[in-house]
Design a protein that fits this description.
Strand order of the largest sheet: 2-1-3
CATH topology of the largest domain: Rossmann fold
Shape: globular
CATH superfamily of the largest domain: P-loop containing nucleotide triphosphate hydrolases
Largest sheet: 3 strands, antiparallel
Distance between the termini: 22 Å
CATH class of the largest domain: Alpha Beta
Number of strands: 5
Amino acid sequence: MLFRLSEVYKSYGSQDVLRGASLQINPGEHVGLVGRNGAGKTTLFRLIGGEETPDSGDVVRARGLNLGLLEQHVDFELGMTVHESALAAFGRLQQIEHEMHELEHRMAEATDDLDAVLERYSDLQHEFEREGGFEYAARAEAILFGLGFEREMWQMETEKLSGGQKNRLGMARLLLAEPDVLLLDEPTNHLDVAGVEWLEEFLSS
């Protein structure tokens, strides 16, 4: 089991959105949730992701489960570019790179604790390689291209993007993060035919 909802009720004021909703998703399953606007699809996703809590009932997730939720409205840190926002999905790898560069400067200065510096550098290098550090920039660029971001857009600040472009960039960041479970809320809303075909191929692979 990846996650399970049991007899979940959720209301907003006098509006009952979910009444006794139950479902279970298991590893390897691919599920499409279909319903009219206001039926509770987004609420269900937010409950699964832990952003909302049920009024009653249980939401149970597998231990250590990494959920990735694509919402219909996505915000980014002010001043960041399209390229920087995509690479932010690799926060740990960027931290490792930064520390490795600092250690390289210390090695060049021939500090007294050189052995300790070399040992730390070696550990970081192995972690960087194991986590795909030598491929992550290329992966980010491939996904940006696939979702319709041409190279000339990469240095554009995210606050200058349209709503549809922000949603596509949010999807890029989510796909790059590679969560255990992808929760995609109307993912094709802002994609053209080529983008939809690319996303289908990406998810199937």
